[in-house]
Design brief:
This protein is mainly α and 94 residues long. The protein is built from three helices and no strands. Keywords: Membrane, Transmembrane, Transmembrane helix.
Length: 94
């Protein structure tokens, strides 16, 4: 079984810490520009997306012993996340 280069607690902290930072970025941007204008609903949807993607990544790491399979699965989660985000932001499919 191939292990992660980080200890379990370290990669979990990195994953969820990155999710918190991503969630805070629009709020910080709103303090400096009027170009970013999110309301509570936007933060809730983005937070839910981050929670689902983070949970999927955690599940992948816990259930998949092979590094290459983890990378492909994580790339798939990232791609789906970005496609949903782009659709919600600008409607690329409709």
């Amino acid at each position: 079984m191939t292990s992660s280069p980080l200890q379990p607690a370290a990669w979990r902290m990195a994953l969820w810490g990155a999710a918190v930072v991503l969630l805070l970025l629009p709020w910080v941007a709103m303090q400096f520009t009027t170009e970013v204008s999110w309301d509570l609903g936007d933060f809730v949807v983005f937070g839910a997306m981050l929670a689902i993607a983070g949970g999927a990544l955690e599940g992948i790491v816990r259930l998949t012993p092979h590094r290459r399979a983890r990378l492909w699965a994580a790339a798939a989660v990232a791609l789906v996340f970005l496609l949903i985000w782009a659709e919600l932001a600008v409607g690329i499919f409709g």
